[in-house]
Amino acid sequence: MNIEKLIEKEIDDAKQGEVLSIPKSEAASKKMYIESYGCQMNFSDSEIVASILSDEGFHTTQNINEADIVFVNTCSVREKAEQTIRKRLEFYNSVKREKNPKMLVGVLGCMAERLKEKFLEEEKLVDIVVGPDSYRDLRNLIEEVEDGKKAVNVILSLEETYADINPVRLGGNGVTAFVSITRGCDNMCSFCVVPLTRGRERSRDPKSIIKECTDLFANGYKEITLLGQNVDSYLWYGGGAKKDFRKATKEVQNTSITFANLLDMVAKINPKLRIRFSTSNPQDMGVDVIDTMAKHDNICKYIHLPVQSGSSRLLDVMKRGYNREKYITLIDNIKQRMPDCAISMDMITGFCSETEEDHKETLSLMDYVKYDYGYMFKYSERPNTPAARMEDDIPEATKQRRLAEIINKQQEHSLFHMKEKLGKTYEVLIEGVSKKSDTHFYGRTTYNSAVVFEKGNHKLGEYVKVKIEDCTSATLKGKVI
Ligand code: SAM
């Protein structure tokens, strides 16, 4: 395959990650090409990077051949994500060799700390490695590499929240935006690499969050998703790591701001501004958060509540900080206070020592909750996590079979919830043109269900009432009334 064809194919492949772009400017002297993989947090971080580099005269491009620098914002959560990113790096290097020798290659985010030596020294795949707390250092790092050095900064911080950075909204629809509220994670779940790659948990100054959300609404945005690895754990007491909260004075502790307080403040910006948040952690989600959701119509009635397993024994091995009974109590509280609230989960199957009995408990928990959606994964061992010291003892075929069983069950439940909506009318925020038909828009209900309908004279960012006429397990179809 010649290089043009390869580039076309690779850009297509990259769409499972996303190429982000802002309009080209005549004045732009330097161009960056940036791809993001993994969680919403990574996409949000790329917007911070674009903002920091735009101050240095960089503009983004979607054409890798003209890029002065290419960055991949990486994900380490599962082994498969890492393999995808490695392939991308090999591709950038082929472009560099054959098309664009001046181009620098940089790795951002979660893979930085773990693979810095391997990428820089051993495999010579990259020129710059930048960890998630070092984006402000990008300018120096680029200068270093221009001076012929390999540039790396993977220092994790106890304070950095990029509170003052106004993210450049990349590749967006002008309707929905992510706003980061916490960084890092203190939970130390035994399977999870996030605390190692993103550092200790810290919360962002609520004033800067409210300002960012208010500005977004003033600029036409209609929906904000507050982001963090564990949003329920948000705690503002003047700055610094959450683990140091106990060292603060009583007065400071008593005037601290919790996630429920923050949610309430953001919801009050304007009733026409929809609020979502992700991700919740069952060990930290309090009834105060549920009550705040119930109080405000503009807080979407949808909670993503990763459970990971239905077995208390396995939850203990995973160090999740709750058991099956506590999780069920939380679900019951949500259903009692907001009977129509949609709930989704993450589930890991085939974790170390998982028995057939544990797996059955997972299936029975799914039957109890009847999740609206689910994100289900086979366990993959992550280096240096506590679980990496355990035996990854579930045969691949068993992992695969159990995964298929939970996916099948989830599809039944998703279809059940979608069918319940047939004939009913929902308010939908128009977010974009349908991927399958350019005469149709898609949007979402408060329950996070995707709805497709004819465009008519409607516009992006408008709220419309749609009567549901048909569905699959993933999408509703309807007519604007
Ligand atoms: N902070 C959230 C939490 O812990 O509930 C989500 C963290 S992670 C970015 C997203 C999902 O990836 C997790 O909820 C989990 O289901 C999955 N995951 C994390 N580590 C994994 C591993 N080692 N193997 C398979 N799946 C994993």
List the helices and strands and how they pair.
Elements: H1 3-13, E1 18-20, E2 30-36, H2 40-54, E3 58-60, E4 69-74, H3 79-98, E5 104-109, H4 111-122, E6 128-130, H5 138-146, E7 151-153, E8 176-180, E9 182-183, H6 194-198, E10 202-203, H7 206-218, E11 223-227, E12 235-236, H8 250-254, E13 257-258, H9 259-267, E14 274-278, H10 287-295, E15 302-304, H11 312-317, H12 324-337, E16 342-349, H13 356-369, E17 373-378, H14 396-420, E18 425-433, E19 440-444, E20 450-454, E21 463-471, E22 475-480
Parallel strand pairs: 2-3, 2-4, 4-5, 5-6, 6-7, 8-11, 11-14, 15-16, 16-17, 20-22
Antiparallel strand pairs: 1-2, 9-10, 12-13, 18-19, 18-21, 19-20, 21-22
Helix pairs in contact: 9-10, 10-12, 13-14
The structure holds S-adenosylmethionine (SAM).
Residues 39, 77-78, 189, 191-192, 194, 229-230, 279, 281, 306, 308, 346, 348, 377, 379-380, 382 line the site of S-adenosylmethionine.
Could you characterize what this model shows?
With 481 residues, the protein is α/β, with parallel strands linked by helices. The chain contains 14 helices and 22 strands. The protein has helices at 3-13, 40-54, 79-98, 111-122, 138-146, 194-198, 206-218, 250-254, 259-267, 287-295, 312-317, 324-337, 356-369, 396-420; strands at 18-20, 30-36, 58-60, 69-74, 104-109, 128-130, 151-153, 176-180, 182-183, 202-203, 223-227, 235-236, 257-258, 274-278, 302-304, 342-349, 373-378, 425-433, 440-444, 450-454, 463-471, 475-480. The strands form six sheets. Strands 1, 2, 3, 4, 5, 6 and 7 form a seven-stranded mixed sheet that branches. Strands 18-19-20-22-21 form a five-stranded mixed β-barrel. β21 (463-471) and β22 form a beta hairpin. α9 runs parallel beside α10 and α10 (287-295) packs parallel to α12. The chain is globular, with a radius of gyration of 23 Å. Residues 6-11 and 20-27 have low confidence and may be disordered. Residues 39, 77-78, 189, 191-192, 194, 229-230, 279, 281, 306, 308, 346, 348, 377, 379-380, 382 line the site of S-adenosylmethionine (SAM). S-adenosylmethionine is lined by residues 39, 77-78, 189, 191-192, 194, 229-230, 279, 281, 306, 308, 346, 348, 377, 379-380, 382.
